[in-house]
């Protein structure tokens, strides 16, 4: 039921009217006039609603009582018993019921204790604005003799200035038409009423119907009232039948359609629009017989006007019902207080005093917003005042005081002082007791201070500072958002800012409808049901409609637009909406949706719910255990802290939810532990032990380092020792009360060649660091650099972020990390990695391993210096020695229960062992050597050969012969030989270069990702299978030839001049390998097939010349350095006469030193550029010859003009 309030003027003088009047006698002052917007559809005909009024027993009982003329009130009152409209005795009957002028039949009188006394005289504190329309009507009646009872009745109402003027304008048009003798049946008088509830639209609509009849526009007095939803539900045939009956039985009349915008609402599935088309057609076909009044809110009538372009011509009139002014609201409140309490209620500082003015100004803050209730809002306000008074009176009576039941105090009217109310609020005290949430408590305290500031500004009659009760709660799950939301609502209710303290929890799916238009209806229904309450929308970011530059989700857009339309977020609005979610996603939503949402919610100052830290989680654990009457040992509480600390690392950490889960696990384990005991030994005291929280709780405090056994034989001993040192640091830090995370690194670089154990070590790192308590799970997330890179602009960052978030609390192993140097999106991925690792919230929550070849990883770190700073710890994986390869091969064979004849692989002095070692050493010279990976492949091949021979020869013993072993190894060597690139004498290979790294790396020469460079060759003699095993006899293999300690440790690619020998693999001849002695010289061993004699001779001459120049430069450099030291010493001790000479000498020495150093630097740059071009597949150094540079193998040549552009 929609209720409207109308305040008519009287002809007598009143404090709020400047017009003089004569005293009159009347029954009593009436309460504020209320008009139900019911229609004939409710069961009452129009004549019954507008006809002869009924007199209530209350009026009859006081009919003989007369009072002096009081302030003007409404001509209509609401009977307290029956809620039906009643006329005032001093109001003309024609103004109420033109259809039934007979006098009302009195009801049996019932005794009333006291009549309502006249209103005392109070001046309206907000003043009074005279009605221009009323003055014009008085002039027209006086000067022109115009008469109209309906307009007389309209002019007695307060406000409605635009409506009054519109009535006069319509009457003027009718009078002009009559004077011109024009037929009024050709004129359209359809009209639209727009305004908020409580402004009298329904009552004025009835007056409009009577007015049209009074001026002769309509002959029929019939008025039919309905609503848009009823019309739409009955469909086009229903409204067609209704109009047909009006025309047939009453000759037409007025059709009143309330909330007409519902006809064009999307959720009506088109039925309302069809009915509207019928109405529009009937309006045109029955001009002069049928007038339609459409009523609705101004904003929502926009879709109504958009339905048909011809609406504006068919509906020529539009009346806007403005919200009541402060003066009118005060008058309504004053009348309500006076009539409800029969004139006995007093107000502190008077009815026109400060506190009443504050009350009215607070109410008026919502004026102009959609849904402002006007007179209805006044009624709700008075109900709140009465409720506060009742609470105060009950408290005073409990304290033994003698309260005044007929006094509204300051606190009853405007509520308590916020600072005092907060101190007395149980919800506020409970909020302060919550563990953690310091930022939330500070935000709540700031809000209280703001409310207190506005409270004092209102008392000083200054405008309050605007702020919204709506809030954003952002944070992870389990941080207390729902709990705080309930307390927040109760605090607002205690401060008098909300009429109710209920908390309603919703999620986005509750708002989204099944089809277009339903979302708006569901949202509106939820908002209307939560007035005066706290509405919490959890996971609110799911209402994000998507990128505004693309097609958005219309269902979610409808929800947000409805929120913006209904929620104003202004002081005085009796609602509080809290949006809950993750801060980044909430921010994205505000960026994508209706900008008006940002004005209604404080996006810049949300309530941030931070994750609980470990001490706070332990406090929560103890609190929950106390609530459940559970106890635990101190050690158990420490273990529970370790469990929660590991849980902190997980990406979806649920804070207090993790505490609940941890405690539930402990209770379950406790029950299982007790159930395994005999019944008489079972304890029921609820004392939890460490193993209840974590069955393997002592994994991090074991004296034995468990990674030795797990990794022994899989990786080099130096790697195992490194990992053991990390475990020792962790154990020592715990024993001395230090934080192990500050002592043990979590970001690593693994450098080394393929098959050296990088991946194997990484897979064990998960268990190692989990045992140390650094991770929430031993899981290892493996990916390559390619998995971090996108395929188009904007894809790389989210793809990288998703991979990193997936690995929180785990080990992230990024293989081939050197690929982050190349590609147009690599820099974006590196920037995202830097940003992610730099966040404090992610610090120490995961172990990150970057793996790749030594040279390439060094290049990556040199090109990304900021990135390099995040990975200070390096673990270098050496190439497996031949002895290690034999050990690994033996393990693989024994795993399949295969042994070698005479166990020659276990005897390091046997000829078979030495032969296999020599072959392994030869295999390592092949560029594609992959260490353990190739050893495992060899073992697989040997097993296959054994199985073949076992079937063919009916062999029973599981024994491999030396020939089978060497044949398999030679087969692999030949296979890898065939895969090498063979080039002619004048051929060259130009490998594609990787894309530039962009402007920041200008001038930097970056090599393509390289394959593992060939290890250093050693003295070796390798025979063909045809040569038999005799060729191995007496052969000495130097496995350490060419390996210095520093070189083995760093794994840098070595220049060819440092190699002792190289394998020359040939396809013909009995001997496919030539030792250094057979080749004749070291230089001959370096010569590549295809290099001509002339080119080789030129290269050797150039190398000799280059060596000579280098020696000369070195000698000169040493001499200059000695001269410089002598000159500096002489300069320090010399006298004034020698200063100039010594200074000149020092400058000369320094200039020559600088020139030599620059020359050497230039040569080094040239070598780097030449290596970057990857022309030589063996990675040889280059020597300057005529016209350019030639590799030390003699086969590859690069011209000067090719290298010049790269160096410049």
UniProtKB/TrEMBL annotation:
<feature type="domain" description="AAA+ ATPase">
    <location>
        <begin position="467"/>
        <end position="607"/>
    </location>
</feature>
<feature type="domain" description="AAA+ ATPase">
    <location>
        <begin position="187"/>
        <end position="305"/>
    </location>
</feature>
<dbReference type="Pfam" id="PF00004">
    <property type="entry name" value="AAA"/>
</dbReference>
<dbReference type="GO" id="GO:0005524">
    <property type="term" value="F:ATP binding"/>
</dbReference>
<dbReference type="GO" id="GO:0016887">
    <property type="term" value="F:ATP hydrolysis activity"/>
</dbReference>
<dbReference type="InterPro" id="IPR003593">
    <property type="entry name" value="AAA+_ATPase"/>
</dbReference>
<feature type="region of interest" description="Disordered">
    <location>
        <begin position="1069"/>
        <end position="1093"/>
    </location>
</feature>
<feature type="coiled-coil region">
    <location>
        <begin position="1103"/>
        <end position="1176"/>
    </location>
</feature>
<dbReference type="InterPro" id="IPR000641">
    <property type="entry name" value="CbxX/CfxQ"/>
</dbReference>
<feature type="region of interest" description="Disordered">
    <location>
        <begin position="84"/>
        <end position="143"/>
    </location>
</feature>
<comment type="similarity">
    <text>Belongs to the CbxX/CfxQ family.</text>
</comment>
<dbReference type="InterPro" id="IPR050773">
    <property type="entry name" value="CbxX/CfxQ_RuBisCO_ESX"/>
</dbReference>
<dbReference type="InterPro" id="IPR041627">
    <property type="entry name" value="AAA_lid_6"/>
</dbReference>
<keyword id="KW-0175">Coiled coil</keyword>
<protein>
    <submittedName>
        <fullName>CbxX protein</fullName>
    </submittedName>
</protein>
<feature type="region of interest" description="Disordered">
    <location>
        <begin position="1"/>
        <end position="67"/>
    </location>
</feature>
<dbReference type="InterPro" id="IPR003959">
    <property type="entry name" value="ATPase_AAA_core"/>
</dbReference>
<dbReference type="Pfam" id="PF17866">
    <property type="entry name" value="AAA_lid_6"/>
</dbReference>
<feature type="domain" description="AAA+ ATPase">
    <location>
        <begin position="744"/>
        <end position="881"/>
    </location>
</feature>
<feature type="compositionally biased region" description="Low complexity">
    <location>
        <begin position="1"/>
        <end position="20"/>
    </location>
</feature>
<keyword id="KW-0547">Nucleotide-binding</keyword>
<feature type="compositionally biased region" description="Pro residues">
    <location>
        <begin position="101"/>
        <end position="120"/>
    </location>
</feature>
<feature type="compositionally biased region" description="Polar residues">
    <location>
        <begin position="1069"/>
        <end position="1081"/>
    </location>
</feature>
<keyword id="KW-0067">ATP-binding</keyword>
<dbReference type="InterPro" id="IPR027417">
    <property type="entry name" value="P-loop_NTPase"/>
</dbReference>
């Amino acid at each position: 039921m929609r209720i409207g309030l109308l305040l008519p003027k009287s002809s007598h003088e009143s404090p709020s009217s400047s017009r003089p009047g004569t005293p009159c006698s009347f029954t009593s002052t009436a309460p504020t006039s209320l008009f139900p917007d019911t229609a004939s559809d409710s069961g009452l005909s129009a004549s019954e609603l507008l006809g002869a009024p009924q007199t209530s027993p209350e009026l009859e009982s006081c009919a003989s009582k007369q009072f002096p003329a009081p302030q003007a009130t409404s001509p209509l009152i609401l009977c307290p018993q029956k809620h039906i409209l009643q006329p005032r005795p001093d109001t003309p009957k024609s103004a109420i019921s033109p259809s039934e002028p007979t006098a009302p039949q009195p009801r049996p009188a019932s005794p009333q204790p006291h009549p309502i006394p006249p209103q005392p005289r109070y001046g309206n504190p907000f003043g009074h604005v005279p009605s221009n329309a009323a003055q014009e009507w008085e002039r027209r009646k006086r000067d022109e003799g115009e008469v109209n009872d309906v307009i007389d009745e309209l002019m007695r109402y307060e406000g409605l200035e635009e409506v009054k003027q519109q009535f006069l304008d319509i009457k003027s048009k009718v009078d002009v038409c009559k004077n011109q003798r024009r037929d009024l049946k050709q004129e359209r008088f359809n009209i639209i009423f727009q305004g908020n509830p409580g402004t009298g639209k329904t009552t004025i609509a009835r007056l409009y119907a009577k007015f049209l009849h009074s001026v002769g526009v309509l002959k029929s007095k019939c008025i039919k009232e309905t609503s848009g939803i009823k019309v739409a539900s009955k469909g086009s045939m229903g409204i067609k039948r209704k109009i047909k009956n009006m025309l047939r039985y009453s000759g037409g009349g007025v059709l009143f359609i309330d909330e007409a915008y519902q006809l064009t609402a999307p959720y009506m599935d088109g039925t309302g629009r069809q009915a509207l088309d019928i109405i529009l057609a009937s309006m045109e076909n029955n001009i002069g017989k049928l007038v339609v009044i459409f009523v609705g809110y101004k904003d929502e009538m926009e879709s109504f006007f958009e339905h048909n372009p011809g609406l504006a011509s068919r509906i020529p009139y539009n009346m806007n019902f403005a919200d009541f002014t402060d003066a009118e609201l005060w008058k309504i409140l004053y009348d309500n207080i006076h009539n409800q309490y029969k004139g006995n209620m007093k107000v502190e500082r008077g009815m026109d005093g400060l506190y009443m003015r504050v009350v009215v100004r607070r109410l008026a803050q919502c004026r102009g917003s959609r849904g402002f209730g006007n007179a209805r809002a006044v009624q709700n306000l008075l109900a709140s005042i009465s409720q506060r008074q009742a609470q105060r009176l009950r408290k005073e009576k409990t304290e033994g005081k003698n309260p005044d039941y007929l006094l509204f105090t300051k606190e009853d009217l405007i509520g308590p002082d916020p600072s005092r109310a907060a101190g007395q609020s149980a919800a506020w005290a409970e909020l302060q007791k919550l563990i953690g949430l310091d930022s939330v408590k500070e935000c709540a305290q700031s809000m209280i201070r703001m409310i207190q500031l506005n409270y004092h500004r209102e008392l000083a009659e200054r405008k309050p500072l605007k702020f919204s009760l709506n809030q954003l709660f952002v944070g992870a799950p389990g941080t207390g958002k729902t709990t705080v939301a309930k307390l927040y609502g109760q605090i607002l209710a205690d401060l008098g800012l909300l009429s109710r303290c209920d908390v309603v929890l919703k999620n986005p799916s509750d708002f989204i409808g099944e089809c277009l238009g339903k979302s708006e209806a569901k949202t509106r229904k939820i908002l209307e049901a939560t007035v005066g309450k706290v509405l919490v929308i959890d996971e609110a970011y799911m209402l994000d409609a998507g990128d505004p530059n693309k097609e958005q989700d219309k269902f979610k857009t409808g929800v947000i637009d409805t929120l913006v339309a209904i929620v104003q977020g202004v002081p005085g609005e009796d609602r509080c909406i809290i949006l809950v979610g993750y801060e980044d996603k909430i921010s994205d939503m505000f960026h994508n949706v209706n900008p008006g949402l940002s004005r209604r919610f404080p996006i810049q100052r949300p309530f941030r719910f931070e994750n609980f830290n470990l001490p706070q989680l332990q406090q929560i654990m103890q609190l929950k255990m106390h609530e459940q009457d559970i106890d635990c040992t101190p050690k158990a509480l420490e273990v529970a802290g370790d469990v929660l600390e590991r849980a902190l690392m997980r990406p979806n950490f649920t804070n207090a939810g993790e505490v609940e889960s941890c405690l539930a696990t402990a209770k379950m384990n406790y029950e299982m532990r007790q159930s395994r005991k005999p019944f008489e030994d079972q304890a029921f005291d609820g004392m939890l032990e460490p193993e209840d929280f974590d069955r393997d709780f002592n994994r991090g405090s074991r004296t034995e380092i468990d990674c030795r056994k797990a990794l022994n034989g899989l990786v080099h001993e130096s790697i195992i020792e490194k990992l053991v040192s990390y475990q020792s640091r962790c154990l020592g830090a715990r024993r001395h009360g230090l934080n192990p995370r500050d002592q043990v690194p979590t970001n690593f670089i693994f450098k080394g060649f393929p098959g050296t154990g990088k991946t194997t070590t990484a897979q064990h790192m998960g268990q190692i660091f989990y045992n140390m308590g650094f991770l929430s799970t031993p899981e290892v997330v493996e990916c390559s650099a390619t998995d971090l890179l996108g395929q188009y602009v904007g894809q790389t960052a989210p793809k990288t972020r998703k991979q990193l978030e997936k690995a929180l609390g785990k080990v992230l192993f990024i293989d081939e990390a050197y690929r982050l140097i190349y590609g147009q999106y690599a820099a974006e991925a590196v920037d995202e990695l830097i940003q992610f690792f730099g966040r404090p919230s992610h610090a120490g929550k995961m172990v990150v391993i970057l793996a790749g070849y030594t040279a390439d990883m060094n290049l990556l770190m040199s090109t990304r210096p900021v990135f390099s700073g995040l990975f200070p710890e390096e673990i270098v994986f050496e190439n497996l020695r031949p002895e290690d390869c034999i050990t690994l091969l033996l393990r693989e064979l024994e795993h399949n229960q295969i042994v070698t004849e005479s166990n020659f692989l276990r005897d390091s002095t046997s000829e078979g062992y030495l032969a296999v070692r020599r072959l392994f050493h030869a295999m390592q010279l092949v560029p594609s050597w992959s260490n353990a990976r190739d050893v495992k492949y060899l073992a697989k091949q040997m097993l296959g050969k054994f199985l073949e021979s076992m079937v063919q020869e009916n062999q029973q013993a599981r024994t491999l012969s030396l020939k089978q072993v060497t044949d398999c190894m030679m087969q692999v060597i030949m296979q890898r030989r065939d895969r090498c690139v063979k080039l002619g004498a004048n051929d060259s290979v130009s490998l594609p270069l990787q894309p530039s790294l962009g402007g920041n790396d200008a001038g930097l020469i970056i090599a393509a990702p390289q394959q593992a460079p060939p290890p250093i060759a050693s003295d070796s003699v390798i025979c063909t299978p045809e040569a038999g095993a005799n060729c191995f006899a007496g052969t000495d293999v130097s496995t350490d030839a060419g390996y210095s300690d520093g070189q083995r440790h760093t794994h840098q690619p070595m220049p060819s001049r440092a190699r002792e020998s190289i394998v020359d693999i040939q396809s013909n001849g009995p001997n496919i390998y030539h030792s250094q002695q057979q080749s004749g010289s070291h230089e001959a061993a370096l010569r590549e097939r295809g290099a001509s004699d002339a080119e080789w001779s030129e290269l050797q001459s150039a190398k000799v010349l280059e060596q000579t120049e280098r020696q000369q430069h070195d000698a000169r450099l040493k001499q200059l350095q000695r001269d410089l030291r002598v000159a500096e010493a002489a300069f320090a001790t010399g006298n004034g006469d020698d200063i100039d000479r010594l200074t000149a000498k020092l400058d000369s020495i320094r200039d020559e030193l600088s020139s030599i150093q620059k020359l050497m630097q230039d040569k080094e740059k040239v070598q780097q550029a030449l290596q970057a071009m990857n022309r030589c597949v063996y990675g040889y150094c280059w020597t300057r010859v005529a016209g350019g540079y030639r590799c030390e193998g003699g086969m590859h040549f690069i011209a000067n003009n090719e290298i010049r552009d790269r160096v410049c």
